[in-house]
Amino acid sequence: xxxxxxxxxxxxxxxxxxxxxxxxxxxxxxxxxxxxxxxxxxxxxxxxxxxxxxxxxxxxxxxxxxxxxxxxxxxxxxxxxxxxxxxxxxxxxxxxxxxxxxxxxxxxxxxxxxxxxxxxxxxxxxxxxxxxxxxxxxxxxxxxxxxxxxxxxxxxxxxxxxxxxxxxxxxxxxxxxxxxxxxxxxxxxxxxxxxxxxxxxxxxxxxxxxxxxxxxxxxxxxxxxxxxxxxxxxxxxxxxxxxxxxxxxxxxxxxxxxxxxxxxxxxxxxxxxxxxxxxxxxxxxxxxxxxxxxxxxxxxxxxxxxxxxxx
Length: 311
Description:
- The chain is built from nine helices and five strands; from the N terminus they run E-E-E-H-H-E-H-H-H-E-H-H-H-H.
- By secondary structure, it is mainly alpha-helical.
- It has one domain (12-305): Rhodopsin 7-helix transmembrane proteins (Rhopdopsin 7-helix transmembrane proteins), CATH 1.20.1070.
């Protein structure tokens, strides 16, 4: 379905990735709504605890709070639109809204890698250079890391978003339920600039940060192995949750890039299930990992929900 305009070229496109939405619309709606509420509650609760408790006003917890805020923004960009689509007769989206969703999805995804890099550096300084930690990880340093963690991805992703917004479209049907890299298949001509720029952005926003994280945690592992039991315990307690989040997010990112960039023969059902995994697991996985595995956050959660059991 499309609505043509001589000046704007196209206004609406169809999202064709839904499977038997007319038959299961209310089941889809109920499950998605429940998941969205859980995501908002889980992430917001931990952010709230980080804000109100002074013992959590440390760089590591501030970066965790930033990651969880990203999860809320990411989910709020996707889930309300999914809910509307489930109860609508036609699953359509304006092309401008599609571009905005594309921007937020990849802005948040890229920001995730940069914030995880900042957390890796924080853990490296804390474990490997503990005496220098207070002078290196100052409030100004944290602010700079946070600003760069959001500003660099925003500037990077704005370029393909603006170029795509001005590109002529020939295909009006998107094979998916959200606007990701698949929007390039709507365009009449595959832009060589977008392809080249995409590779550069992938290196800058994902590959290089990931290599830095791997290098940093390898250094931490080697130094911890040579150190006392207390240092090894501290490294395991604080680094393991970050590594679990990194591994989870890396697999989901690799799937998104491969499916969107490579012509695949996945069935519509398989594509829907795999896409839902990318928008479900990570926003739920982050707060659960940090809430259960981070000792101080876990302690505050127990105090919040089970005050009678805390002596």
